[in-house]
Specification:
The complex is a heterodimer of chains A (673) and B (230). With 673 residues, chain A is an alpha/beta fold. Chain A contains 21 helices and 21 strands. In chain A, helix 11 links the parallel strand 13 and strand 14. Chain B is an alpha/beta fold and 230 residues long. Chain B is 54% helix and 11% strand. Chain B has nine helices and five strands. In chain B, helix 6 crosses helix 9. The N terminus of chain B is likely disordered. The chains are: A alpha/beta (673), B alpha/beta (230).
């Protein structure tokens, strides 16, 4: 290849162009590349090839560049019609200037432009970021504001809650007051109602002469009314006790056949319609029963008397069976008016009377079924009804054969048979099941082991084989026996320092019962019951003199009449002071003491009686309990380490008191749990 | 010397700062450049707008001159421009943005126009005064510009043209915008200082050479209450 050939071949690689012009800038010669790229032609002005507006710069170049030949100038020229940046050198040559331009600059310029546009994008992103941050700050401010508003409304809500708490407190107090009022009022009703009934019975027994038929009839109505009133008052009282949670259960083993027999007897007077037969079916094999017979009886009496009331002809059929292992059911089926399906649940509501033809002839109290259902629930069971209008109804009471409390207590006693290591034993002398179970619950989680004793004798037995860390004693248990037990413990050097916590009973019924009275002392009392009680007390010889201390004239009168034709002689006292005096004078074999007396409280009477060796040993039967006040409590506190009030027994107080006592006795360590 | 300096008034201390800033730019020392703006600029109580127009933009113009005199190369020019872009970003971050005025502005350099520092400054100034600004940057092809405007419906379009050689493109862009949209148009930039450059613009409501002029004109044209600057 020739030199020219090589030159041509390599030319396409060149990034340079060359031309020559005169001092004024007119092109004299342009090489191929200059012609091609710039469109340079001899005769053109160099500045005409420049980008619009850059002409001045070209002039400067032409003027200054030749003086600095090694130094390039950047000129904006039109390359292929488009602006481009060239690095241009100039040097003087004969007849003008030699100019060489390089496109490499443009290459770099393009790359730099890429960098520039990237930079622009980055700058844009940065602006965006800054804006977003500002937005965020604004939102944050908003959030803070909203937060403050929320706090305000939160405070509002908290205040609302406080108000609600207050309201519910006051509602609760109102409910308590209501219960108390109902209970008190019911009691107040009892005395006169029972007086009416007692006197009516006396009349009917012709005790003071016969009555003519008309009179007999009238007195019969009086008695009937009194009985109905009595039932109503009892029901009301039971309901209020249920509501306040103070209804006590007395589970005990009993026999259904005997229960049926007793019911047959009690209900006979109600069964006046010969067209209706009352049938008690003899029960088949039943599981062993250990539940509250009185309550079961109460429910059945209600069901049966309803059935009898609402049946014009046919049969009222009572039976008992075991529907499942460990459960017992009682069914009362009648062929009476029946209940419409939409009323099946309504009949269990308080004071609801369902409209039916029989209602006009017969009146119910409206409380019976409601109470019965609640009692059924307390027994751990349920009461339900099935009925067809016009054909009859069947009420079914189903309960566990053994009341859950009984099984729990059995379990407790089994547990206490072995001393559990790591637990401090606490001897609880208490005969009421429910209370025992309560103690267990309260104390178990604090690391105590409850050892139950149902009587002071049992307590003594237990004390022989174990040493409790503390003793909880129901001071009303066994009457005199509890006080003796207490003094024994204190007199004996080995047991003197065991702390004894005494529990006082403020519940009326408990008190009455614990002091030897029956559940609710019926005034006038049942003669048979009274006689039995008197005979039971006669272990130290025949009883013949009975002192009745009661401010109610009728009560005294009734007792006198009851015992009129018996071997007992009655002495009366109308108040506590008089009672103590007569006791000293007459030395009766037993004292019947009313608790609610205006002049001298029963406690004082007891005090006086116990103080005097002459009267100390006379057994006292007390009735109608009364709430204990401060002095009464003080009396009890003398010999005891602490007093726990059963009524308001709370877990925390119980544990705290026991701990205090134990710490005082130096037994702190184990009981700290 | 040039009209803009007369408008802005004489501020010798800013001139001094501009010189120092320029020196840092050309040395490629961006930290120093920014330090100068922050400490000697903001630190001495100067407003951000003053720094935009009297320092950064002035320095940019000086750079242009230097290039014309061939005292600096294209590479140096780019480097210096990059420093200013960074400085502008810092200033933006430092500034408190005024509440939104509810108007949007589209800012762009015409097709072929690579010098976008001036447009950037205008965009930032408008943005900091509450306008919602879309900045398309340098060398925006005319067709892209039109379709973007058609899509986003800005309240105002501001076109920047620095080199006189791009005036033709600017005219074409304006005509195309008027044909297809009814948006108000502003044209600004160094090129308009060329004699006769401000003639023959149909439908351009605003002519401006700097950001303050654009801000005031935009406010007045769009019904935004005047609220001072800075």
């Amino acid at each position: 290849m020739t030199a020219g050939g090589y030159a041509d071949a390599v030319r396409s690689l060149s990034r340079e162009l060359a031309l020559a012009c005169d001092a004024g800038g007119t092109i004299l010669w342009a090489d191929a590349r200059a012609s091609e790229l710039l469109g340079a032609r001899p005769g053109q002005a160099l500045r005409s090839l420049a980008v619009d507006g850059s002409g001045g710069r070209v002039d400067q170049f032409l003027r200054h560049a030749p003086d600095t030949p090694g130094r390039p100038w950047e000129l904006a020229m039109l390359v292929n019609g488009r602006p481009a940046t060239l690095a241009v050198w100039a040097a003087r040559i004969p007849s003008g200037l030699g100019v060489v331009g390089s496109l490499v600059t443009e290459d770099f310029a393009q790359a730099l432009e890429q960098v520039t546009s990237t930079l622009t994008e980055v700058a844009e992103l940065q602006r965006e970021t800054v804006r977003q941050r500002a937005e965020l700050a604004a939102r944050n401010g908003e959030l803070v504001r909203v937060n403050r508003e929320l706090e305000d409304s939160n405070r509002g809500v908290i205040n609302l809650y406080a108000e609600l708490d207050e309201k519910s407190d006051s509602l609760r107090r109102t409910a308590e007051v209501k219960s108390r009022v109902v209970a008190n009022v019911s009691h107040e009703f009892r005395t006169p109602i029972n007086s009416i009934a007692g006197l009516a019975r006396l009349l009917l027994e012709n005790s003071d002469g016969p009555l003519n038929d008309e009179q007999r009839r009238q007195v019969g109505f009086i008695l009937k009314s009194a009985d109905e009133l009595s039932v109503l008052v009892s029901d009301l009282l039971d309901l209020s006790k249920l509501e306040s949670g103070t209804l006590r259960l007395r589970p005990a083993p009993f026999d259904v056949s005997k229960l049926f027999a007793a019911l047959r007897g009690t209900l006979r007077p109600l069964h006046t319609n010969p067209a209706v037969t009352l049938v008690f079916e003899a029960p088949g094999p039943l599981p062993v029963l250990n539940t509250d017979e009185t309550k079961v009886s109460q429910i059945l009496r209600n069901l049966i008397s309803n059935a009898v009331k609402f049946t014009e002809r046919g049969e009222v059929h009572v039976r008992a069976w075991s529907p499942a292992p460990g459960r017992i059911a009682f069914g009362v089926r009648d062929t009476g008016v029946g209940i419409a399906e939409e009323n099946l649940e309504r009949v269990f509501e308080e004071f609801t009377q369902i409209e039916n033809p029989m209602q006009r002839k017969v009146k119910g109290t409206g409380l019976g079924l409601s109470l019965s259902r609640r009692l059924a629930e307390i027994l751990g069971g349920a009461l339900r009804v099935e009925s067809t209008l016009g054909e009859g109804s069947t009420f079914t009471l189903e309960v566990p054969a053994v009341h859950p409390e009984v099984s729990e207590l059995d379990a407790l006693q089994a547990r206490s048979a072995s001393m559990q290591p790591g637990r401090s034993p606490v001897l609880v002398v208490e005969d009421d099941r429910q209370t025992l179970l309560l103690y267990e619950k309260y104390l178990r989680d604090s690391g105590f082991q409850v050892v139950p004793a149902r009587s002071t004798d049992e307590a003594r037995d237990l004390m022989r084989r174990m040493r409790p860390a503390a003793v909880v004693l129901d001071i009303m248990l066994d009457g005199e026996a509890s006080w003796s037990f207490l003094s024994e413990m204190k007199e004996d050097a080995t047991t003197r320092d065991i702390p004894i916590l005494v529990v006082t009973v403020t519940d009326r019924e408990q008190k009455a019962r614990a002091l030897g009275a029956d559940e609710f002392w019926m005034k006038p009392m049942d003669q048979q019951w009274l006689l039995r009680r008197l005979r039971a007390l006669a272990r130290n010889g025949p009883v013949s003199k009975v002192l009745v201390v009661d401010d109610d004239e009728v009560s005294r009168y009734l007792v006198r009449r009851l015992l009129q034709d018996t071997e007992y002689r009655i002495v009366e006292a109308a108040g506590g002071a008089e009672g103590v005096r007569r006791a000293r004078e007459e030395l009766p074999h037993v004292i019947l003491l009313d608790f609610v007396m205006p002049d001298m409280g029963a406690f004082e009477v007891l005090d006086e009686l116990k103080k005097d060796p002459v009267t100390r040993s006379i057994p006292v039967i007390v009735h109608t309990s009364k709430n204990l006040d401060e002095d009464e409590r003080k009396r009890l506190s003398v010999e005891t380490a602490a007093i726990l009030n059963k009524q308001s027994l709370s877990r925390e107080i119980a544990i705290a008191r026991i701990r205090e006592a134990l710490v005082k006795a130096g037994v702190g360590g184990d009981a700290q749990r | 010397m040039s009209t803009d300096e007369d408008c802005l008034g004489n501020r010798p201390e800013l001139d001094e700062l501009t010189q120092s800033y320029l020196a840092a730019q050309l040395a490629g020392d961006r930290r120093e450049a920014i330090r100068l703006l922050m400490e000697e600029g903001i630190g001495r109580g100067n407003s951000v707008i003053d720094l935009h127009l009297r320092v950064i933009q002035q320095a940019q113009r000086e750079i242009g001159r230097l290039w014309e005199q061939n005292s600096i190369s294209v590479a140096q020019e780019h480097q210096a421009t990059a420093v200013s872009q960074l400085a502008l970003a810092h200033l933006y971050q430092q500034s408190i943005r005024r509440p939104a005025v509810g108007k949007s502005v589209l800012v762009a350099c015409v097709e072929g126009e690579m010098h976008d520092v001036g447009a950037r400054i205008c965009a930032d100034v408008l943005d900091l005064h509450g306008f919602d600004v879309r900045f398309l940057g340098a060398d925006v092809p005319t067709e892209c510009l039109i379709s973007f405007a058609e899509r986003t419906h800005p309240s105002l379009v501001a076109l920047s043209v620095t080199l006189p050689t791009h005036l033709g493109t600017a005219h074409a862009a304006v005509d195309a915008l008027r044909a297809r949209t009814s948006v108000p148009i502003a044209v600004g930039g160094r090129a308009l200082d060329t004699p006769g450059a401000r003639e023959g613009w149909d439908g351009v409501s605003i002519f401006g050479a700097d950001a303050i002029e654009l801000l005031n004109a935009a406010r007045s044209r769009l019904g935004v209450p005047a609220g001072g600057t800075g």
